[in-house]
Amino acid sequence: MRSAWTIPDLVTASSGAAPRHGCGQTMRQERESAALLFPDQFLWGTATASHQVEGNNTNNDWWEWEQKGRILDGSRSGLACDHYRLYREDFDLLAALHQNAHRLSLEWSRIEPTPGFFDPDAIAHYRDVLEYLRRLGIEPVVTLHHFTNPRWLSAKGGWETAEVVDAFGRYVARAVDAFGDLVRYWVTINEPVVYATKGYFEAVWPPGKRSLRRLTRVLHNMILGHARAARMIREHSPRTDVQIGVAHHLRVFDPYRPILPFDHFVARTGEALFNRAVLLSMLDGHFQFPFGRGAIPEGQDTLDFIGLNYYSRDMATFDLRHPRSYFGSFFAHPDRPKTAAGWEIYPEGIYRVLKFLARFNKPILITENGVADERDELRPAFLITHLQQIHRAMQEGVKVQGYLHWSALDNFEWSEGRRLRFGLIHVDYDTLKRTVKPSGELYARICAMGGIGTAMLQQYAGSASFA
Ligand code: FCB
């Protein structure tokens, strides 16, 4: 059965899903019988980032990097999903799939293509994007920096230089002036630790450097940049209900050989550097990192909510062959199920990181959680088992405001290119045709119901080998 999507040229559904309206009775009944109910005002949606979906972002550092052939599968972002042109159709589809929230990022290099010049066309574009979402009843969650920098900024040394803080602050102030009435949830920076590690320590993302000192300097500047952005949002937003957060990637670190104290030590070090350091600096203003210990008073109390990006767990071992990473080695558990990215599927991890975050007493928004899965074989059970663990944490008092699945659409997965598909909606990169995957339809039922039904639990959670 084909469903009644209203964008026939671009979209097909792999089987039938209920349209947004006209299923009230059934959904009410399902909600009454749902096994795991979430609060009425829970945000249910998906997340994307400008460079991964928009296409033609020719003026940023990633575009430059791609032209140097640095993408593993040889692909380039190119037209990506052509979402810069097709956003209305895409949002219609998300609304039809019952989503009530959507996380997107503004492309700094479009808004400020040369230093100090703010492009009215780009601003008009993003205003329309945000107004359109609001018109559909979809709450926008807006990221100001999601990995990409304007080329003029990277030419000046990007996040390694102290000047970036002023530059970022100026862009943020302008963005909040332009869109502030439409945005309640602002995410200042996406995954500072991932950004700094990949670009300045592992050398697999631009600018391709390898230095712990540089990594630390970049993190320090990102904390200052975040703090400046938070101040700009507070000063420039016309809304009294504005909420400021960071999207922080948290992983679980467990000792691979639990009887060895050294493995415990490595796991704790991984956790301290990856999970805690940056987050703590934005809460209490103290930063603890190799080469960068000390107070960052500007950072203190700059979060209204914590954005959680959760994907996986790493096993940790002490390994003399890795002096550069403090003799620590991190890898996916060899005996557990993995995604196409090679990451362990570990649903209980989201419960564990939520319990860890709960101690900071801030509301939590799950800003990303998803799975690389070419044929949509893992995603349905991945969704159900992770939501089950989120529900478990909420039952124990953890304040979770919403769940934004990564991602709405298959898209350009950074250095991995197009090979990894994270979407609830399949994108054919030749024709740009969108097709809702079975997991997209399952998620639509969850969003409409505001919970997980008994049958869904039986079908997916019971049989999942990774539950
Ligand atoms: C996160 C990124 C996001 C996407 C997912 C798979 O680290 O924030 O852009 O690449 O991983």
Describe what is shown at a glance:
By secondary structure, the chain is α/β, with parallel strands linked by helices. It has helices at residues 24-33, 50-53, 61-67, 83-96, 108-111, 120-135, 151-155, 164-179, 192-200, 212-236, 261-283, 348-358, 379-395, 438-449, 454-461; strands at residues 11-13, 34-37, 43-47, 101-105, 139-145, 185-190, 243-255, 286-287, 294-295, 305-318, 328-331, 364-368, 400-406, 425-427, 434-436, 451-453. The chain is 39% helix and 18% strand.
Structural descriptors:
single chain, 467 residues, TIM Barrel, eight-stranded parallel β-barrel, globular
Topology:
Layout: E1 11-13, H1 24-33, E2 34-37, E3 43-47, H2 50-53, H3 61-67, H4 83-96, E4 101-105, H5 108-111, H6 120-135, E5 139-145, H7 151-155, H8 164-179, E6 185-190, H9 192-200, H10 212-236, E7 243-255, H11 261-283, E8 286-287, E9 294-295, E10 305-318, E11 328-331, H12 348-358, E12 364-368, H13 379-395, E13 400-406, E14 425-427, E15 434-436, H14 438-449, E16 451-453, H15 454-461
Parallel strand pairs: 1-15, 3-4, 3-13, 4-5, 5-6, 6-7, 7-10, 10-12, 12-13
Antiparallel strand pairs: 2-16, 8-9, 10-11, 14-15
Helix pairs in contact: 8-10, 9-10, 12-13, 13-15
Report on this model:
By secondary structure, this protein is of the alpha/beta class. It is built from 15 helices and 16 strands. The chain has a single domain (7-264, 306-315, 332-461), classed as Glycosidases (TIM Barrel, Alpha-Beta Barrel). It is 39% helix and 18% strand. The protein has an eight-stranded parallel barrel with strand order 3-4-5-6-7-10-12-13, surrounded by five helices. Strands 1-15-14 form a three-stranded mixed β-sheet. Strands 2-16 form a two-stranded antiparallel sheet. A hairpin with a 6-residue loop joins strand 14 and strand 15 (434-436). The longest helix has 25 residues, at 212-236. The protein starts with 10 loop residues before the first strand and ends in a 6-residue tail after the last helix. Bound molecules: beta-D-fucopyranose.
